[in-house]
């Protein structure tokens, strides 16, 4: 079967390289049948304080860029329609508490009918007594709060993301693993159960989860999420799709052949695709 890559970025976000078209060309070269363009949704939709504007320059595109981004994908979709299906998306960082999501929805509203799927992602955590903790390697954070607390709060936040009923696909659901080297987070029984409850909830909502190969690239030893979670997802028949999270064109479809071989062995029989927010299962 031919595969699709549903998670890609490009130079607009400020920390990825290349134009959207470069990513599409690599997808064609690698014989993918679909590529989803899903650059980071403008953070400034949530944080409009000019003081922090500089901070966000390298995190995501500006709000004013978003219409241009959509227009560009539409043009490329048409241009390459005989070679590959180009899908329109965006990776929305989920924030709690407050009105972040309603502000994001407001900016997204004029383009909502263009969306083939919307990715929800958690890139930082915060609970009442903690500061905002960005998910990136940090020994100090681990020592201060402990591994299990970090994982638990990440899972709690994902659970709230799922409750919004706004997203189609969840990105890198064990992103907290970035804190852990090597690839071996220790779950307490309670936290592991919370994670399983989250998977049940995702299944009931009909949402999809991505298998994100960038975990391998980041040196985590495996994809996001790790095998134990993949097995639980397959057992529950949760719709899955592949994403490279490419920030360079060459990484489109990164390790997809190997991953597909692996998940087949774990029992996966279908992947899902999206068009205009309709999910379709395809046999692999
Ligand atoms: Zn990025
Ligand atoms: Zn992400």
| Helix fraction by DSSP (H/I, runs of at least 4) | 25-40%
**Which CATH class is shown?**
Alpha Beta
Mean pLDDT level: 93
The best one-word shape is globular
Distance between the termini: 6 Å
Q: Spans with pLDDT under 50 lasting ≥5 residues?
A: none
Structural class label? alpha/beta
Radius of gyration: 18 Å
Q: What is the name of the CATH superfamily?
A: Metal-dependent hydrolases
The total strand number stands at 12
Please report which band the strand proportion falls in: under 5%, 5-15%, 15-25%, 25-35%, 35-45% or over 45%. Answer: 15-25%
Number of domains: 1
Attached small molecules: zinc ion
Q: What is the string of SSEs from the N terminus onward?
A: EHEHHEEHEEEHHEHEHHEHEE
Based on the model shown, name its key terms.
single chain, 284 residues, alpha/beta, TIM Barrel, 5-stranded parallel β-sheet, 3-stranded parallel β-sheet, globular, binds zinc ion
Describe the protein.
- There is one protein chain.
- The chain is of the alpha/beta class and 284 residues long.
- It has a single domain (4-283), classed as TIM Barrel.
- It contains 10 helices and 12 strands.
- The protein is globular and about 50 Å long.
- The termini are close together.
- 40% of the residues are buried.
- One zinc ion binds next to loops.
Short description:
The chain is of the alpha/beta class.
